[in-house]
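Re: the 535-residue chain
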Amino acid sequence: MNTLKAITCSAFAALLISSCGGAADIISTPLENIDNTPLKVSDLTEIEKHNWGHLDLVKDTIPGMSVDKAYAEIIKNKKGKKVIVAVIDSGIDIDHEDLNDVIWTNKKEIPNNGIDDDKNGYIDDIHGWNFLGEAYNEQLEFVRILAKGDTSDPVYAKAQAEYDEDYQKYMGYKNNYDQMLLQISNADAALAKHLNKTDYTKADVNSIKTEDETLSRSVQIAKYFYSNGLESLSEGKEELSNSLNQINDRLNYNLNKDFKGRINGDDADDMSTKFYGNGNVKPSVKTESHGTHVAGIIAAERNNGKGVNGVANNVEIMSIRAVPNGDEYDKDIALAIRYAVDNGASIINGSFGKYYSPHSDWVRDAIAYAGKNDVLFVNAAGNEGINLDEKDVYPNDAVGVGPEVSDTFITVGALEPKYGSGIVAGFSNYGKINVDVFAPGAKVYSTVPENEYDTKGGTSMAAPAVAGVAALIRSYYPKLSAAQVKQVLMDSGLAVKSKVIVGGETSNVKPFGDLVKSSKMVNAYNALIMASKMK
């Protein structure tokens, strides 16, 4: 989901800023509340970190989806059918070394001739469509509601209250992170001066014996970063700078009532105009890496000796750019879903979402359209650690906990790479009614623009993992309907019988089955076996 995860005060912030509270100790649930599956006590190796979502719980004691096992024992040399997976996101680097051979091409369209050859309304849509045009930054939806100034809008007061709270919160984050970055920079300079070199090592820092208070504090700061897996204060400064960039984006664009982000010439509140944007489906800036990361999880070229293996082979990725750095527009999403359906996608991945949606009916109608046309929509649950049975999130296939408009819409929560009480990612939303399955979503390694790779976390990463398994099912068992594929994903998963920490709050411990409709985490090996037995 393309939303900024809440930035909380870390132990380091507590070390530097007295106003920022310290982090609570992690308390595991008692051993007797964990099932009989052995718990992995050693840290993940570098190979395991890059591939954990594909590993097997029984063999590797890591809660992956048994993808490698499925290829080794079930798929082997079988030939499957090509499956088109539409990724509605921020754009995809279609030239990436690990993606360029799995990108969908519209064979009915002649490139760059300025003619709508296939007469679908979109000119030169060779690899998908870009509904955003050249736009990148955008406001959040509740900020757009305030910017319209219609105080009679029933959600205006709620939006104003949320705006006031968020603005103060992010101004506080900005002040704290500015102070942290300053103090780290000072510490780095002090250590470099004392050691008479800028490329000092962990051993150099550990060897320092001093009664100088400033230097001692600098050593303490450096040791904090070493203990968190970083090799240098330069890395720490880079991480803080990246966080500050997110905070500044939030303040300058997402929460800025005067910012005008939509520049494609289209009225987002008028559904009568549909054919806007352009055929450039790539990210507008390198930092717009979300869609590329999602695409790699689904279908990065397997066994090519580069980067990472996607979950699915036999996949063509259709790139639909409709998710900005901010909240997506309902109109763009509704039309993106319909574009995917009308142009041959059998699976849609939606790693985006928001909590205000003025035209949610447009999107729900599009979801129903996908269902009627046998297209599976895989939806990220969201990253706020909340119960979706108690708060509406968009997109969805139902109003609240009411009847669903589609039986091909599946919502996915995120798992951590370690089995036990902490298996549910603290950021992951959940819900016994509104979340269907869980899948690997934290600390996931995948493709990012310009032939690079990175680790990211979110239900945004869990959804494409499931989309990849769905693509395997649709490839090797193409006679199954989208509704049957959804049922296979839910019924064939591994049941987690343990109690788990919910929302990252160690005091909130519940049975895993209370958080998700299926009570299970997706498993590719089991899913293919079940699919093979269905008519």
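Residues 1-33+141-260 form one domain.
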